[in-house]
Specification:
Purple Acid Phosphatase, chain A, domain 2, globular, alpha/beta, 8 helices, about 20% strand, about 250 residues
């Protein structure tokens, strides 16, 4: 196995292009995306077009909100989703490209399993919407319910915070020296976010899986260009650009 796993692009084209180039430079051709292609950022169409060329993609909650309603979203996220929806529709009727993007989103699965491997956006229990945070390791009932639903390994995103969950511990990439070796132990691995990291590191984050070795990678990208695009769009709050610089 030699595979890259990305998640939470959030319409950040500069970050996505930098990550895809980093993947290409490593000679990796198989790429899985764990959802949230759109939302928050300024380039939903361009990011969708690139993800449509990847091997596998899972439905994220922002992707779902574009198709239906942004239920439970705060005001900033809701405005961004409604703006994104307009961008995907086009301003002069639905084009063939717009239909392809809509159909692609509408056909995305919520979960994918391949033997011992599970791929979701949120969690094994609620593949699209449930968050699994670091402090959840102290919630024994929740962790048992999650681990009961996986065969061996689960890869996920959603929180934008990378790391490895065992039954009782959470390890950040730094704590495991950016590498984790898969064994017989069940684990959940959050691959982090390409387009909006929230672990106080503004660099794009994703993982590479080669056989039983999982490696967390950080990639610098042109943050200022993305921020300027966000500032120029009235329906995207400036805070969505500001947070990119701090990785929060």
């Amino acid at each position: 196995m030699k595979r890259a796993i990305i998640s939470d692009i959030h319409s950040n084209l500069e970050a996505l292009e930098a990550v895809l180039e980093d993947i290409h430079q490593q000679g990796i051709s198989e790429v899985y995306c764990l959802g949230d292609i759109v939302g928050y950022g300024p380039n939903p169409r361009e990011c969708l077009d690139k993800v449509m060329e990847l091997d596998v993609c899972i439905l994220g909650n922002h992707d779902e909100a574009v198709l239906f309603d942004p239920l439970g979203f705060n005001l900033v996220a809701r405005r961004a989703i409604l703006w994104t929806r307009d961008q995907l529709k086009g301003h002069r009727g639905e084009s063939a490209a717009a239909r392809r993007r809509r159909d692609f989103l509408g056909e995305l699965p919520r979960i994918r399993t391949e033997g011992d491997f599970m791929f979701v956006h949120g969690s094994p229990r609620d593949p699209t919407n449930e968050y699994v945070f670091e402090d959840d390791v102290y919630n024994r009932r929740k962790m048992e319910a999650l681990f009961d639903r996986i065969e061996r390994y689960c890869f996920q995103g959603h929180t934008h915070i990378p790391g490895v969950f065992t039954h009782r511990e959470f390890f950040s990439p730094e704590e495991c020296n950016f590498q984790y070796r898969l064994s017989d132990e069940k684990v959940m691995i959050n691959v982090g976010s390409v387009g909006q990291p929230r672990d106080c590191d503004p660099r794009a984050c994703y993982v590479v899986v080669i056989d039983d070795q999982v490696t967390f990678r950080r990639v610098e990208y042109d943050i200022d260009t993305t921020v300027k695009k966000i500032y120029a769009i009235e329906d995207l709050e400036n805070s969505l650009g500001d947070r990119l610089r701090d990785g929060r």
